[in-house]
Design a protein that fits this description.
Elements (H helix, E strand, L loop, with lengths): L5 H10 L2 E4 L3 E8 L2 E3 L4 E3 L2 E7 L8 H10 L3 H20 L4 E3 L3 E5 L5 E5 L14 E2 L8 E6 L7 E6 L3 H11 L2 H21 L6 H9 L2 H21 L35 E10 L2 H13 L3 E9 L2 E12 L2 H14 L4 E5 L1
Antiparallel strand pairs: 1-2, 2-5, 3-4, 4-9, 6-7, 7-8, 10-11, 12-14, 12-15, 13-14
Helix pairs in contact: 2-3
Length: 349
């Protein structure tokens, strides 16, 4: 008997804040309140985000109990089915394949042989289940102010007038404070005059003047070229695709319920060689995860590598593929560069 374990993982996460997969790790939920994105005009419902902890491996009995209840099997048989499921996942991770748990998330191993988890878009918060992200737009109304007019009689009457615009209020303020425009113009002329005198060298300090006198034109030109070269090198080192605009792709966040794990194999024959091509360096974890998903969607093996440079944690995403001949290598590289224009070969074995 072969039992599909993945539907029960999703079902149990709706009922519990943690679920242990015996001998493998635990999936835990963290509550996040609703958020408002004022820039894009979005109201997001409260969610429970999911994380993976490889250190929690002690059986909590939840998976065993639901398998016994659903399939009327013994505790020993339920444990055997879970063991088969865990062995399949471990085997695929060792072969550098991505493990897909339907509607929950994906698991893969990075360059340091650590298991990484990419959650799917499923919201496991039952109270907010089914609530979509809502677009909102501010309502603009003309505000009114009340001016009290006291007539000759004892009764009061009120006249409502439209609130003045900023420009109208500024005009009233300028008329009451006629010195303000003159002061602003005078300050602007002083700033512009000082900037112009500095540009022609009247305000250069003694140190700068001495430096310019003591340096020959050739030394000044050499220093400028060195500075430009250093700036260019720093720009190359700070390569980061954080500003890349990733369009929301619902297809990448959903999978078929029948698929337990991906089935692509990476076993090499004796004549095959390995190449790794870099397709991006990211400082933003979400952008790095989306690039990994893109790589797998195009049918390649993704190899993420985390490292720190100048105090910033970066993730380099690589594509690994096997080849036998030089022509086969060039053909695969052309296909990769059609998908990722900045692809660079970083390793050939």
């Amino acid at each position: 008997m072969n039992i599909d374990i993945t539907p029960y993982i999703k079902e149990l996460l709706f009922e519990n804040n943690s679920l242990v997969i015996p001998g493998f790790g635990a999936l835990t939920l963290t509550y996040s309140p609703s958020t408002i994105d004022h820039v894009q005009g979005l109201l997001n419902p409260p969610t429970k985000s999911i994380n993976f902890d490889k250190n929690l491996v002690v059986n909590d009995g939840k998976l065993v109990n639901i398998i016994q209840e659903k399939h009327q099997v013994s505790t020993e048989e339920a444990n055997q089915q879970i063991g088969k499921f865990v062995n399949i996942m471990k085997d695929q991770l060792e072969r550098r394949e991505m493990v897909n748990i339907a509607n929950v998330g994906r698991l893969y191993k990075d360059f340091e042989n650590n298991i990484q988890f990419i959650p799917d878009s499923t919201n496991f918060n039952k109270e907010a289940f089914g609530l979509p992200t809502v677009n909102f737009y501010p309502i603009l109304r003309d505000k009114v102010t009340a001016e009290t007019i006291i007539p000759s009689g004892s009764a009061k009457s009120y006249k409502y007038t439209k609130k003045k615009s900023f420009f109208e209020r500024f005009q009233d303020y300028s008329r009451e404070n006629s010195w303000l425009p003159i002061s602003l113009i005078t300050a602007l002329l002083i700033v512009l005059g000082g900037y112009g005198m500095k540009k022609i060298g009247l305000f250069d300090g003694n140190a700068t003047a001495d430096k310019k006198v003591n340096e020959s034109p050739a030394e000044i030109l050499a220093n400028q070229e060195t500075s430009l070269a250093v700036d260019s090198a720093e720009d190359d080192l700070e390569e980061d695709n954080d500003a890349e605009d990733f369009a929301a792709d619902e297809a990448m966040a959903t999978t078929d319920d029948e698929d337990v794990v991906d089935t692509e194999s990476s076993t090499l024959s004796p004549d095959q060689r390995i190449a790794v091509v870099s397709v991006g360096i990211f400082g933003n974890k979400k952008n790095a995860q989306k690039r990994i998903e893109q790589v797998y969607e195009y049918g390649y093996d993704a190899l993420p590598n985390k490292y720190t440079k100048k105090g910033k944690e970066l993730t380099q995403i690589g594509i690994q593929f096997a080849f036998e001949t030089e022509s086969e290598f060039e053909e695969t590289l052309r296909h990769i560069r059609k998908k990722f224009k900045d692809a660079k070969v970083i390793r050939r074995e």
